Amino acid sequence: MRTGQAAKTAPSPRQDARGVAGDAAGDTGRETRGVLLTVGIGEILVQLGLTPVVAVIPGLAAALGVSAADGAWVLTAFILALAGTLLVCGRLGDLIGHRTMFAWGAIVYALAGALAGLLASFPMLLAARTLQGVGAAMISGNNLAILMRAMPVAKQGRAIAVVAMTSSLAAVLGAGLGTAAVAFGGWPLLFLGPVPLALWAAIRGRCLPDPPRDRRGRVDWAGAGLLALTAALVAIALNHPHGTTSDVVMPLFHVAIPVLALMAAIIFVLVERRVETPLIDWTQLRSRTFAAAIGVNTVLHLTMMATLFLGPVLIVRGLGQSDAAGGMLMVAVQASVVGTAYLGGWLYDRTRSRWIRPGAAAILAVGFVAWALSGVASSYAALIAFGLFSGLGSGVLLAVNNVAVMTGLPDAYRGVASGMLETTRHFGHAFGVTIPTAIVGLVAATTDVGGDATALRWGFFWSCLGMAVIACLGILLALAPPRQGSSPT
Predict the structure, then answer these.
(1) For residue 355, which of 311, 397, 395 has the smallest C-alpha distance?
(2) Nearest CA to 103 among 243, 206, 232?
(3) Number of helices and strands in the chain (H, E)
(4) CA angle 337-398-416, nearest 5°?
């Protein structure tokens, strides 16, 4: 009797195996969803360091008692630190663990955000923002490795798409959150607001899976330092005070610092060609397809950030409207990018046309010319309309060019492609602020056209034309034909 009951209640081997497999699949599903959530939070933190600040630079600069050009350094310091340390943070993740770097990066980000919100001194605010940029690099430089390790191969593409969409939506919401933070809580809330989210990411980061470590490798500290130094010197050479700087000091910005930047860049290239594990493997750029796509990526993010920076500055300082009006422009542009990125991917999948990228870059060029004329005409409605038009070009180009970057090298070099993609993205962001600021400052210092607002509108005009020229460079790069036999071996 007992035997019969036992036989009746005991599961069969097949049922037991199915139950164990089901439990394992459930555990794996929960784990991968948890990783996706944590990595998504990391991407949100990076965006919260960018878009809320760029949306309110004019109002933030006024609250801090500095010019709009000096206020732009609150954004530039963050982006330069992020771009300059991204590769070395990823390399450190290879050595000591990507999970460890992610968790400590979130802690550094939270600490720097608290300091930025609590410190009243403008120089100390810049120092805190630089530290926050390093924390963001520790997160961003290790996100992809963690995600790829945790996700099954069949789900990796969708996982990357979800994270990319999360980042884009965070950029859209960040513009509105920045405007609301300044309106209701004052500028410190810009930096204090993300602190709880960063601490939560640090806690969750300790539970992330950790890819195998490369314990035999080394960190190219010399290359990392030279890369950061070169970027900082170029930014200072492009964006320095004109109206308040004496004629004795000005040659330092116009001659000495550019020469130092060039020397640092040359030394960086020489060092990278000699070290065993360089930050940038120059042999990968022998692939014309990959090199051109990386160039297009730089152009894309430079012009995209220029749009987000120039628009609010013109609307608030040049047209005399509110920070909310500037924030609405940013939301419209970002929404256009998000809404059209899928269109670009769908169009490419259907046609595989090589004309999509140059066509999208041409839309950017035309959009900037139209923006230049709208700014001189002081038309807020035209700025919104052509901002949406430029967003169309950015969204389509973003989707299609990312495919070109990631397929421009053999499969074994996908990590290199991803690292170069992120690095040029953030350097594009940095100089998308620095170059327009330099043009606006130069126009304001060298022309007398009847008041600061009028001078700013003309500075906006010439900045937009400069961005149109850069977009035309993107057209040429997108048209570059592949060279046979150029892939690295």
Answers:
(1) 397
(2) 206
(3) 20, 0
(4) 145
Residue-number span of the structural domain to which 419 is assigned: 283-489
Is the separation of the CB atoms in 454 and 255 below 8 Å? Answer: no
Identify the DSSP state of 256.
Answer: I
Q: Do 488 and 340 share a structural domain?
A: yes
- Distances in Å between the alpha carbon of 431 and those of 79, 257, 303, 367, 435? 9, 16, 9, 19, 6
Q: Which residues contact 31 (CB under 8 A, 6 or more apart)?
A: 150, 209
Torsion angle, alpha carbons of 372, 378, 379, 383, to 10: 40
Report the residue count for the chain.
Answer: 489
**pLDDT above 80 for 190:** yes
Residues 255 and 167 in one domain: no
What phi and psi values does residue 370 have, to the nearest 5 degrees?
-65, -40
What is the chain's alpha carbon radius of gyration, rounded to the nearest angstrom? 24
- Tell me the C-alpha distance between 33 and 150, whole Å: 9
Please check whether residue 121 lies inside any domain of the structure.
Answer: yes
Task: Note the pLDDT tens digit of each residue in 79-106.
Answer: 888 888 888 888 788 778 888 899 999 9
Q: If pLDDT is split at 50, 70 and 90, which confidence band does 9 have?
A: very low
| DSSP structural state of residue 286 | G
Per the structure, the count of domains in the chain is 3
Cα separation, 156 vs 109, in Å, equals 27
Q: Taken in order 152, 156, 160, 165, is the CA torsion positive or negative?
A: negative
Which of 276, 293, 312 is the endpoint of a domain?
276
Residue with tokens 């450190």: 92
Closest CA to 276 of 346, 237, 219, 212: 219
CA torsion sign, 57 to 58 to 64 to 68? positive
